[in-house]
Give the backbone structure.
Amino acid sequence: MFSHLHSWLQRVVYPKRNEVGGHRRLHINWPFLGQCDTIKENSIDLSLPKPDFELSDELKNADEKVKQYFSLQTASYGEIKEVCRRHLLQRIQRHPNDFNSLEVQIALRTIQIRSLFQHKERLGKWEIRLSRVILPILIQKRNKLLKMLREMDNDRYLWLLEELKLYFKPNPLSVWTERYCKKWDLRNLTKEYCQKMIADKKAAYHEELKKQQVDFLEEKKQILAWIEEEEKALNVKQ
């Protein structure tokens, strides 16, 4: 059972080509990933100091090499992400202790989504596969929060889209949209791929039969002529 499952995963699911069996694997692209983001990265000035060093008076009067060492140019990915989060929250928060409003939650989801897009080339194979699962979940949660904010305060909703550089067009209330499910989408894509493969093989076999039709008719004509001659020689009445 597990050997059949492993061979099916190799032929259909994995996004590369099976060099041993020669089967073409199914390439899956989720077109809605990041469609709301007009930019795909968290932009920040790298000359800013690292987290928890922005209020240091000694660093303000320090040498340029010391400032460069404590700047974001030598910071890790987590530190840069933390500075982006703080600067964005300062623009979005209604007050300094606002950490749970809809605007702040949407901003945090946006930072996570753009971070995955920005640093996906630095991730390993397992992290890339994991990001394909996490990204749709984060985008669905953000879309849900955007719909809630639009219903509660449309002016605040439009202001937030402009601040975060987002493009979001919700569906009308009369239109029902099916929730994204990776398992069912994968099954539907596999079914479509198999149906297309069967149709292509049938079409190729039909063309091959059409090429053999002329020789078949010529051979049939010769056989019928031979049968007719044999009947005449044997005086067989039909």
About this structure: Residues 68 and 151 are 46 Å apart (CA to CA). The radius of gyration is 32 Å. Residues 19-38+76-176 form a domain with the Helix Hairpins fold (CATH 1.10.287.10).
